Amino acid sequence: MVFPGLKGGAQQSIVSFLGEARAELDPTGAFLGASLFGIAAFRPEDVAQDVTRIARNVDYIAPLIYPSHWGSGAFDVADPESEPREIIAESLKVFAPLVEGSGARVVPWLQDFTLRVPYGVKEVCEQVRGAEDEGIDEWIMWDAYVTYTRAACLKG
């Protein structure tokens, strides 16, 4: 990708922007977060998202780690979409150290939609449990159709 007039590269521009936003928002008490691609944990240069540097400028990092978006064998999980608890837990194990010491917390995006594998109460709850396995008790659920699963495992 080419960005006319961009100085310092896309990664640096994102980090700088978040630093400027943080300086403006801090006096207001507003929280600042950044949603990042799951792959940012492995190949930040491919998506211009350096997790560690971004984490220093935000209150939370929200990795998009939907099970349907990981390929077969990711994190040694044969079929990530069919093993939501395992793939969420393994994904978070990679993000946690990248954010450690920054003051930011990890608040993952979880999947409440069907792509190839039907997703319902069991699959949604398994993702929540995967996050809890890694000590994370907050998350953001996504469904483009806004037809969210209401289940006993979900609080509220």
Q: What would your notes on this structure say?
A:
With 156 residues, the chain is of the alpha/beta class. The protein has helices at 9-25, 44-47, 51-55, 84-99, 121-133, and strands at residues 33-37, 60-64, 105-106, 109-111, 140-142. The chain has a single domain (9-142), classed as Alpha-Beta Barrel (TIM Barrel), CATH 3.20.20.80. The strands form two sheets. A three-stranded parallel beta sheet has the order 1-2-3. Strands 4-5 form a two-stranded parallel sheet. α4 links the parallel β2 and β3 (105-106). It starts with 8 loop residues before the first helix and ends in a 14-residue tail after the last strand.
List the strand order in the largest sheet. 1-2-3
Strand fraction: 5-15%
Number of helices: 5
Tell me the CATH architecture: Alpha-Beta Barrel
Label the structural class.
alpha/beta
Radius of gyration: 16 Å
Helix content class: 25-40%
Number of strands: 5
CATH third-level topology: TIM Barrel
Summary, kept brief:
The chain has helices spanning 9-25, 44-47, 51-55, 84-99, 121-133, and strands at residues 33-37, 60-64, 105-106, 109-111, 140-142. With 156 residues, it is an alpha/beta fold.
